[in-house]
């Protein structure tokens, strides 16, 4: 895999709450320079990023229900519609994590399906296509729940399942913080569950070329990272 090929799999990401216009502009310019798949920004910067990236192949990705997934479905749908109207090409939504942990998968599925339907309908009216990715927050879920969430996303018509927000704070029984990002195990499990027809995005804690390669080998075909430039520059 060449540097150009790995760059084409990267969502160049900046979701820090204190990110300003200058940093988002730099993110977009780096995405143009390296021809990343997209920039992933908070909804408030979608229109700005869309303007900077106009007439390029770099897509604008944003997040919905981020980072907790605990908003109402109606709120997520409105956020999705607003983002697409403002120029988003891709929407990464956080599913209802609490419902997933409870085993209330009908709620999980309907939440996803509403966002997917809203995204597709809004995009159709604008004569464009939109990709919807579903963030599972795998560090908070066991394997069986991850599988069920993947199946919910697949049934709902989502395009990708995604591992993590990178903002969760899981703790062990001793109260110590546990890893909160992507793992090869979870990526492999998700790929096995959704099959070859859906995308799998690994995101959270991927800061090196070695880690990116491990995720791709595990089954990811999109990488969400704030270290895109470093990964490409160090790619061998």
Q: What's the topology here?
A:
Layout: H1 3-7, E1 10-14, H2 21-34, E2 38-41, H3 46-52, E3 59-64, H4 73-85, E4 90-94, H5 97-102, H6 105-125, E5 131-135, H7 143-156, E6 160-162, H8 184-194, E7 199-203, H9 209-218, E8 222-225, H10 228-233
Parallel strand pairs: 1-2, 1-8, 2-3, 3-4, 4-5, 5-6, 6-7, 7-8
Care to describe what's here?
The longest helix has 21 residues, at 105-125. Helix 4 runs parallel beside helix 6 (105-125) and helix 6 (105-125) packs parallel to helix 7 (143-156). The chain has helices spanning 3-7, 21-34, 46-52, 73-85, 97-102, 105-125, 143-156, 184-194, 209-218, 228-233, and strands at 10-14, 38-41, 59-64, 90-94, 131-135, 160-162, 199-203, 222-225. The mean pLDDT is 97. It starts with a helix and ends with a helix. It has 10 helices and 8 strands. Helix 8 (184-194) links the parallel strand 6 and strand 7. The chain is 45% helix and 16% strand. With 236 residues, it is α/β, with parallel strands linked by helices. It has an 8-stranded parallel beta barrel, surrounded by 7 helices.
Largest sheet report: 8 strands, parallel, barrel
Describe the strand arrangement of the main beta sheet, using strand numbers: 1-2-3-4-5-6-7-8
Structural class: alpha/beta
- How many β strands by DSSP? 8
> Could you give the order of the helices and strands?
HEHEHEHEHHEHEHEHEH
Cα separation of the termini: 8 Å
Overall average residue pLDDT: 97
Radius of gyration: 17 Å
Helicity level:
40-55%
């Amino acid at each position: 895999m060449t540097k150009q090929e790995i760059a084409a799999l990267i969502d160049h990401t900046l979701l820090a709450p204190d990110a300003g216009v200058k940093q988002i502009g730099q993110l977009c310019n780096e995405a143009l320079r390296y021809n990343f798949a997209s920039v992933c920004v908070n909804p408030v910067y979608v229109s700005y990023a869309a303007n900077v990236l106009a007439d390029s192949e770099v897509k604008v990705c944003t997040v919905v229900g981020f980072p907790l997934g605990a908003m109402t479905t109606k709120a997520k749908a409105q956020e999705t519609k607003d983002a697409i109207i403002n120029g988003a090409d891709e929407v990464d939504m956080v599913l209802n994590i609490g419902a997933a942990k409870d085993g209330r998968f009908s709620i999980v599925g309907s939440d996803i399906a509403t966002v997917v339907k809203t995204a597709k309908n809004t995009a159709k009216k604008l004569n464009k296509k939109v990709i919807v990715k579903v963030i599972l927050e795998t560090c908070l879920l066991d394997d069986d729940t991850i599988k069920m969430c993947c199946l919910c996303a697949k049934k709902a018509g989502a395009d990708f399942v995604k591992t993590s927000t990178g903002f969760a704070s899981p703790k062990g029984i001793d109260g110590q913080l546990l890893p909160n990002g992507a793992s090869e195990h979870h990526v492999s499990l998700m790929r096995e569950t959704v099959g070859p027809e859906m995308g799998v995005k690994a995101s959270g804690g991927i800061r090196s070329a070695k880690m990116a390669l491990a995720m791709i080998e595990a089954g990811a075909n999109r990488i969400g990272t704030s270290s895109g430039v470093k990964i490409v520059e160090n790619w061998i």
